[in-house]
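Quick start: read one record
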Amino acid sequence: MIENVHRCQSMKMESTGGQVSYDDIFKMFPELKDDFKRVETSLGASLNACHEEISETKGIVSQQKKQLESLLNTVEELRSENIILRKKLAQAEERADDAEQYSRRNTVEIHCVPYNKGEDVLKVVKMVGRALDYPVEDMMVDACHRLRTSDGSDRPPGIVVKMVRRIDAEGLLHKRRVKRNLNSHDLGMTDKAAVVVYVNESLSAGRRRLLNAARQAKREKGYTYLWIRGGKVLMRKSQGDPVKVLNSMDNISDL
């Protein structure tokens, strides 16, 4: 439009020797008006195109928002379902561990007894029984064997003893609690320095993990007492405080 004005002015000035009259200016108005209409039409078309694109974009954003809300709802449902399934799995594992621990009620483990190649394990068990003043006879033992040696450990492998009757397993455990200083010399193994001999309840894998976690919590949270009784992990803050039974890792978190 401005170029047209300049062009018209240039033409008038050339024809009049550089003089522009009011008539010349009025004659340019129709051309200017036409230019304004063309600009207005073009600008309107551009604005309409922009409005259409904005409307289309808003529609896409609205659709994506609905899809996102649907996905978030699905994620929340899956999260809730996962929490429920994890609780059920933890309960199932706890029941399975309880069953395994119950199956070990007649079993004890003897640790730190020096190992002799070619030894008679049952004879060693009888030596422990005599030292505890709880004689063990052949008919009292269902099975016994040494555990595998731990890699890198200098401790002798433990001995697993499954008694025929639960009362005999509990008898050995009780006698070991009474005789706190049981050692290898009490078994007649005097060729080396005396080492303390332990008689413990046999724990399932899950119960052993729970006990290890309880040991760490005992140190970190200032508990004084930690022990096993009847396959249960028990803790007490101080003398006279109530005993806490630990059935799961959640119980340790709540200490």
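Confidence is low (pLDDT under 50) at residues 1-6, 11-16.
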